[in-house]
Amino acid sequence: MTASPVVKSFWDEPTGSWQYVFHDPATMRGAIVDPVWNFDPRAGATTTHDADRILDYVRETGIEIVWILDTHPHADHFSAAPYLKEKLGAPTGIGEHVVKVQKLWQDIYNLPDLATDGSQWDRLFADGDTFSVGEIPVRVMFSPGHTLASVTYVAGDAAFVHDTLMVPDSGSSRADFPGGDAAVLYRSIQRILALPEETRLFVGHDYAPNGRAPACEATVAEHQRHNIHLKDDPSEADFVRVRTERDQTLPLPKLMLAALQINIRGGRKPEPEANGRAYLKIPLDCFEPRGDADD
Questions:
Q1: 1, 26, 181, 191 — which has fewest CB within 10 A?
Q2: pLDDT tens-digit readout, 42-60
Q3: CB under 8 Å to 107, separation ≥6 — which residues?
Q4: 133 near 66, Cβ under 8 Å?
Q5: Contacts (Cβ under 8 Å, ≥6 apart) of 235
Q6: Is 40 domain-assigned?
Q7: Could you write out the DSSP letters of every residue in 106-165?
Q8: pTM above the 0.85 mark?
Q9: Is 279 contained in some domain?
Q10: Are the C-beta atoms of 79 and 64 separated by less than 8 Å?
Q11: pLDDT of residue 289
Q12: Residue 105, SS3?
């Protein structure tokens, strides 16, 4: 019988981001996936509202957190992994290809002193790596396409699929960021959909279109039958065409140029300058303006 973790979801409305805590009910050991460190771009202010919601839940429920996991370096929110590590003492992890993302964005931001060896995390996971959260076995699946470094965490009958898929009525996620590739995304999605049909897939984002409630979960079978980008079993070429046409209408995420320089540091601010303050850099004229939506 496949182990079944308890999954608690937390939605960050301003960025449409889903965060998760999953735990083994037998041992009450758990893990946090993709926690958000809140950022107000108008004020340049960071807050820990979302991370503190997670902390409250963990403490009230009595869960012992043994891992704090990021699926990839996010382009739409800052990672709260270091803050939660400080509060809970659990190690942080991300996919090993994060070093490629660090090197790519090191050049974009002109950060010659940035460490690009992934040392900002406690563990860099390779495809096929396994670990346990209590009695729940967790397997790491390298699933790039949205980014160079994206991984899926398959925890028993739950899989945290980051920004490969949206919920079925929204399809799939974009593949036009630096290092993204729609064909590679298609192959990653096919690998995810080869999981058992009853596997619960937990996505990284939802923007609650058409006034419906935010959603984060659907099974493999539900995606196969109802996902608007997958239900007709498209060929790779057809998927790439649809995804590329959609991506060409989308603007860059509002927080991308702020978020990536935090997240390639593992969720940390740049070093303070002489006045004790940290500053973000915005590369001018590096990207073209376009589009009118965020997904």
A1: 1
A2: 999 999 999 999 999 999 9
A3: none
A4: yes
A5: none
A6: yes
A7: HHHHT-TT---SSTTSSEEEPTT-EEEETTEEEEEEE--SSSSS-EEEEETTEEE-TTSB
A8: yes
A9: no
A10: no
A11: 82
A12: helix
Place of tokens 């540091």: 265
Q: Tens digits of per-residue pLDDT, 196-252?
A: 999 999 999 999 988 999 999 999 999 999 999 999 999 999 999 999 999 999 998
- What pLDDT score was predicted for residue 295? 41
List, edge to edge, every strand of the sheet that includes 92-95: 6-12, 17-24, 29-33, 64-69, 92-95, 123-125
Domain enclosing residue 27, as ranges: 6-263
Tell whether 269 is covered by a domain. no
pLDDT in the model for residue 292: 54
- Is residue 242 included in any domain, yes or no? yes
What is the number of domains present in the chain?
1
Q: Please answer whether residues 23 and 6 qualify as being in contact, where contact means their C-beta atoms are separated by less than 8 angstroms.
A: yes
Neighbours of 89 (CB within 10 A): 11
SS3 219: strand
Nearest of 225, 267, 295 to residue 68 by alpha carbon: 267
**Contact status, residue 204 vs residue 151, Cβ threshold 8 Å:** no
